[in-house]
């Protein structure tokens, strides 16, 4: 299940015309038979505007976009998947976990940080750990990522579009470095880095056909 599926061009247009959250709300109600919370709708408006600007800036205009894709047999939903071919012509998809965080603090748990969420501070999974779990789950359960001669190559990253790293930032602590290397974090002030990351994987476009697999 996904709440939105289409081309990157259509996604940019829907976002610019301030229609994206309404389309997601309609799809959400059609599937769940109740309305999403106001906070979730605000999150869509804010994060997807940033994602749309990034896609436009990177020139990714012939690509597939999935929003709020529910992992099979779970209640978890991925924020965004962008699909396209790499420079070798191989099918690729990139999971982008979107966070509105502005700062975080240290947690006593090994794989968690503390951030402001839902009106209070909460211990939550480090976002690289979170998106890494999503990727591993999809690679294990969705045939498009493991069957055939040329399965879709799957990558994952985190876009902290409101975040600015500080010296000795908890989110970049040594204990998270190995997972960050696999599933990198990008803050709002290093857009060039996430642009390069996406372009290196899906630069050749033709992404809408990949979504159908």
Unreliable residue stretches: none
Order of helices and strands: EHHHEEEEEEHEHEHH
- β-sheet strand percentage: 25-35%
Largest sheet: 6 strands, mixed
Which term fits the overall shape? globular
End-to-end C-alpha gap: 14 Å
Indicate the radius of gyration in whole angstroms: 17 Å
Helix content: 25-40%
How would you describe the overall organization of this protein?
- There is one protein chain.
- This protein has 213 residues and is an alpha+beta fold.
- It has one domain (2-211).
- 38% of the residues lie in helices and 26% in strands.
- The protein contains seven helices and nine strands; from the N terminus they run E-H-H-H-E-E-E-E-E-E-H-E-H-E-H-H.
- Strands 1-2-3-4-8-9 form a six-stranded mixed beta sheet, with helices on both faces.
- Strand 2 (64-70) and strand 3 (77-85) form a beta hairpin.
- Helix 1 (8-16) crosses helix 3 (38-58), helix 2 crosses helix 3 and helix 3 packs across helix 6.
- The longest helix is centred in the first third of the chain and has 21 residues, at 38-58.
- The protein is globular and about 45 Å long.
- The mean pLDDT is 96.
Show the helix and strand layout:
Layout: E1 2-7, H1 8-16, H2 20-32, H3 38-58, E2 64-70, E3 77-85, E4 91-99, E5 105-106, E6 112-117, E7 120-125, H4 127-141, E8 153-160, H5 177-182, E9 185-187, H6 191-202, H7 207-211
Parallel strand pairs: 4-8, 8-9
Antiparallel strand pairs: 1-2, 2-3, 3-4, 5-6, 6-7
């Amino acid at each position: 299940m996904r709440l939105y599926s289409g081309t990157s061009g259509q996604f940019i247009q829907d976002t610019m015309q301030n229609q994206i959250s309404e389309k997601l709300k309609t799809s959400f109600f059609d599937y769940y038979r109740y309305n999403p919370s106001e906070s979730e709708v605000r999150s869509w408006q804010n994060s997807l505007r940033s994602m749309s600007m990034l896609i436009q800036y990177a020139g990714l205009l012939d690509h597939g976009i999935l929003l709020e894709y529910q992992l099979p047999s779970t209640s978890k939903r991925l924020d965004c998947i962008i699909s396209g071919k790499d420079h070798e012509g191989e099918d690729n998809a990139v999971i982008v976990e979107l966070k509105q965080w502005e700062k975080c603090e240290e947690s006593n748990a090994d794989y968690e940080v503390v951030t402001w969420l839902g009106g209070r501070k909460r211990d939550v999974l480090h976002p690289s750990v979170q998106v890494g779990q999503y990727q591993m789950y999809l690679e294990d359960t969705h045939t498009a990522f493991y069957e055939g001669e040329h399965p879709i190559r799957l990558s994952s990253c985190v876009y902290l579009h409101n975040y600015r790293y500080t010296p000795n930032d908890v989110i970049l602590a040594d204990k998270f470095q190995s997972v960050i290397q696999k599933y990198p974090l990008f803050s709002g002030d290093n857009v060039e880095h996430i642009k390069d990351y996406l372009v290196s994987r899906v630069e050749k476009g033709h992404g809408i056909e990949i979504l159908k697999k």
